[in-house]
Amino acid sequence: MRNWVRAAGASRPRGRRAEAPAEPPTPLETENAALRKKVRELEEEREILRKAAKYFAGETRW
């Protein structure tokens, strides 16, 4: 099948770079992207702190 696709000259999009947006992002879209990034960072930090608390709680046996 791959040979048929090559022979037809068709190519499939790869990854996220399949299609670039035609117009620049609006300020709202830019802000949303920044906020999503911040949320991911905070969730990662919270998970690290949760694991650390669990580790240290298990280590303390009084």
Keywords:
62 residues; mainly alpha; 2 helices
Structural write-up:
This protein starts with a helix and ends with a helix. It is mostly helical and 62 residues long. The protein is built from two helices and no strands. It has helices at 2-8, 27-59. It is elongated.
Low-confidence stretches: none
The run of helices and strands is HH
Find the structural class using helix and strand composition.
mainly alpha
Total beta strand runs: 0
Overall average residue pLDDT: 83
**Approximate helicity band:** 55-70%
List the total number of helices.
Answer: 2
Rg from C-alpha positions? 23 Å
Largest sheet: none
- From the spread of the alpha carbons, the general shape counts as elongated
Task: Determine the strand fraction and express it as a percent band.
Answer: under 5%
- What is the terminal-to-terminal distance? 67 Å
Task: Lay out the secondary structure.
Elements: H1 2-8, H2 27-59
